[in-house]
Design a protein that fits this description.
This protein is of the alpha/beta class. The protein has 15 helices and 10 strands. The strands form 3 sheets. It has a 5-stranded mixed β-sheet with strand order 2-1-3-10-4. Helix 2 packs across helix 11 and helix 2 packs across helix 12. The longest helix has 20 residues. The protein is globular, with a radius of gyration of 22 Å. The N and C termini lie far apart (57 Å).
Length: 330
């Protein structure tokens, strides 16, 4: 009887811990599901998030979705901050959010042109019409203006529709390394000219993870677990079998084909989008004060941000540069 009572007491003591639910996180993407988010879907599909005590819901983005606003409103716990400009905007607009990891060491944004018409490099595009979005106009377009002498008079609206490009041999448009070039090749039978903005010297990070200062201050362990698990998911997706993540991508976005996803993943690997630069030694997600300072100095010199801005309010290095998952790269 005594033994039974002791066992019952031990079972009751253990129950709260055994039954404790994982921490729920709602995470917003900045576009629809595709290979560029493969690491997150891989972490979800393979149980990496669950291993870190997380129950993650991934919310897709799109042209009519502003996840930054949803993050500020508290409807998301984390979101993808598309580029370093948006992170600096947090500071400029005194919004209490910051980035906690930079998943893309290279911005995968590209300019795309047709072969055989002389639009084969950034210098050749000076003065020519270029289709870009409103977001791009306040982002890396300013870098190209400063470096290559582009002007806003070149801008034509980009509506995320390939038909204007396909119909005009002289057309030039923005895109992403792992998406539009593939679709253009499928439509024309030829790979277009693809110019990676990062290869022109643009030093901004891309696809950064962002959350509130409140989460960072009051729930640092939660932030750490989400960052670590996401990094592990990316190493698994890039170096292991991507099939689990790909299955979730296709489920979320049925427009994705196996061939397009494979092209996107290969493009990221071939160009070191996640693993180049500081990530080669510090691990995926790496950021440094020096690179942030260099980026700020370049864009401040163009009058895009005020002098003396405290850029450390745009990011924290607390959760990165710890070589999480780096051994999986080798």
């Amino acid at each position: 009887m005594i033994r039974r009572t002791i066992l019952l007491a031990l079972a009751l003591l253990a129950t709260p811990f055994a039954a404790r639910a994982n921490d729920h996180i709602t995470f917003g993407l900045d576009w629809k599901a595709e290979a560029e988010y493969g690491g997150y879907y891989q972490a979800l599909a393979t149980g990496i998030y669950a291993k870190h005590g997380l129950d993650v819901t991934i919310e897709q983005g799109g042209p009519m979705v502003n996840h930054t606003q949803l993050l500020i409103a508290g409807r998301l716990d984390f979101n993808i901050c598309s580029n370093s400009f948006l992170a600096l905007n947090f500071v400029k607009q005194q919004i209490p959010f910051r980035t906690v990891a930079a998943m893309f060491q290279k911005d995968p944004s590209v300019l795309i042109a047709h072969h055989g018409v002389g639009n084969d490099n950034f210098v050749a595009l000076k003065g020519k019409p270029i289709m870009i979005s409103s977001d791009t106009r306040i982002g890396w377009w300013n870098f190209l203006k400063a470096k290559f002498g582009y002007t806003d008079s070149q801008i034509r609206p980009y509506t995320f529709n390939l038909q204007p490009f396909l119909a005009d041999r002289q057309a030039i448009q923005q895109g992403f390394l792992g998406s539009e070039p593939f679709s253009i090749k499928e439509a024309t039978g030829h790979m277009p000219v693809v110019m990676l903005v990062a290869d022109s010297g643009f030093a901004g990070y891309a696809s950064l993870l962002a959350t509130s200062d409140k989460n960072i201050d009051t729930r640092p362990d939660l932030v750490k677990r989400f960052v670590d698990a996401s990094i592990e998911g990316w190493y698994s997706y890039l170096n292991g079998d991507p099939a689990p993540g790909n299955a979730l991508i296709k489920k979320a976005n049925p427009e994705m084909t196996d061939a397009l996803i494979a092209y996107g993943r290969a493009s990221m690997k071939d160009h070191g989008i996640l693993t180049s630069g500081d990530a080669a030694t510090l691990g995926i997600g790496a950021m440094t004060d020096a690179r942030w300072a260099a980026f700020y100095q370049a864009v401040e010199a163009e009058g895009l941000y005020p002098k003396g801005m405290d850029i450390k309010k745009a990011y924290t290095l607390q959760f990165v540069n710890r070589k999480v998952g780096l051994s999986a790269q080798h």
